[in-house]
Amino acid sequence: MLAQRKAALLGEYGMPKYLEPKEVVEAIENAFGPLECRVELVGQRLGFCVFDIDGNALLPLLSWHARWARKPESLQSRINVLRQRVELEGYILDPWEISA
């Protein structure tokens, strides 16, 4: 299983796979389903916020540098921490992982 995951994160010739900006935005938007997550890419920064069904922000507006977010393993790790925070508030999130 670890070998499959490693292979999925590597591109051609064993080089690390980097996500395109559109893929990063889509990954973050999908990470908190069924809740709403709005993501905006402005220059080299990603801004996003997760909302409950009443439109209240569950996490403060987050701003990350887009460069490291393009690395699937880094993005997956940080998103998982945020998902845990949301789940600790009692919300049940859909299963999620970055598709390679």
Could you walk me through the main structural features you see in this protein, from its secondary elements to its overall organization?
The protein is an alpha+beta fold and 100 residues long. Helix content is 39%, strand content 18%. The chain has one domain. The chain has a 3-stranded antiparallel sheet. It is globular.
Question: Briefly, what is this?
Answer:
The chain has four helices and three strands; from the N terminus they run H-H-E-E-E-H-H. It is an alpha+beta fold.
**Strand order of the biggest β-sheet:** 1-2-3
Give the domain tally. 1
Backbone shape: globular
Averaging pLDDT over every residue, what do you get? Answer: 82
Number of helices: 4
Strand content: 15-25%
Largest sheet: 3 strands, antiparallel
Calculate Rg over CA atoms: 14 Å
Count of individual beta strands: 3
Q: What is the succession of H and E elements?
A: HHEEEHH
Structural class: alpha+beta
What level of helicity do the residues show? Answer: 25-40%
Low-confidence stretches: none
Q: Assembly type of the shown chains?
A: single chain
Cα-to-Cα separation, first versus last residue: 15 Å
